[in-house]
Design goal:
- This protein has 214 residues and is of the alpha+beta class.
- The chain folds into 2 domains: 114 residues, Archaeosine Trna-guanine Transglycosylase, Chain: A, domain 4 (Roll); 71 residues.
- Helix content is 32%, strand content 26%.
- The chain is built from 6 helices and 8 strands, in the order ββαββββββααααα.
- It is globular, with a radius of gyration of 18 Å.
Length: 214
């Protein structure tokens, strides 16, 4: 997106386990709970139209649901309303953020004070992975999808840019929340690709052995 958006200190956050948004990627969402419909309506009234995606973090003995430390903010780029008042929306990932603390207030949804420091490259040009062995990766991915009984458009995957391919698969493939968080927090596209391959190969071996993501 060519338009620069001011990133505020306080943003609305949408805690959703297993769902991560990555910079320069698109995430479709289905909103139906009243608090998130209110969040969407309020976001549309702002110039940035921003919603922060973050995973919940269950803390034993803690009252309420905590949040992971790092999430990614997205700009609402598309939406449609159903006859019964639900919304289908698309978020375009702008930048990751670090949670500094939650903001108390009168909104039915959660808001957080965030820092954008350390994620400057998210707002820069597309990332590249010069060491990416695409044929080997796609062969491994094909075996993984076969074990899951899933099909995909291989022509589209073969033609996709490195970042779009790696980020889309990191967002779409069904991994545990802590593994999705590791993909989100990867400092570079190369690191994310290495983590993704590790998770796929771990699944292909039946998840045997020690936890790969600590």
């Amino acid at each position: 997106m060519s338009k620069q958006i001011d990133l505020p200190e306080v943003i609305p956050v949408f805690p959703l386990p297993g769902a991560v948004l990555l910079p320069r990627s698109r995430l479709p969402l289905h909103l139906f709970e009243p608090r998130y419909l209110a969040m969407f309506d309020d976001a549309l009234k702002t110039s940035g139209r921003l919603i922060g995606m973050i995973q919940p973090n269950e803390v034993p003995g803690r009252e309420g649901t905590g949040l992971m430390t790092i999430g990614c903010v997205g700009r609402i780029t598309q939406f449609s309303e159903t006859e019964d008042g639900r919304y289908m929306i698309t978020l375009y990932g702008l930048s990751r953020f670090r949670i500094l603390g939650e903001v108390e207030g009168f909104t039915p949804y959660r808001r957080a004070c965030v820092s954008w420091d350390g994620f400057e490259r998210d707002r820069g040009p597309e990332d590249h992975d010069p060491q990416f062995d695409r044929p080997s990766f796609l062969a491994t991915l094909e075996r993984f999808l076969e074990t899951k009984g899933l099909n995909t458009d291989w022509d589209t995957l073969k033609d996709a840019d490195d970042e779009l391919l790696i980020n889309s698969l990191s967002m779409l493939l069904d991994f545990e929340p802590e593994d999705k968080q590791a993909l989100l927090e990867a400092p570079s596209l190369s690191t994310r690709r290495e983590t993704l391959i590790m998770l796929i190969e771990y699944a292909l071996h039946g998840g045997k052995g020690d936890n790969l993501i600590q």
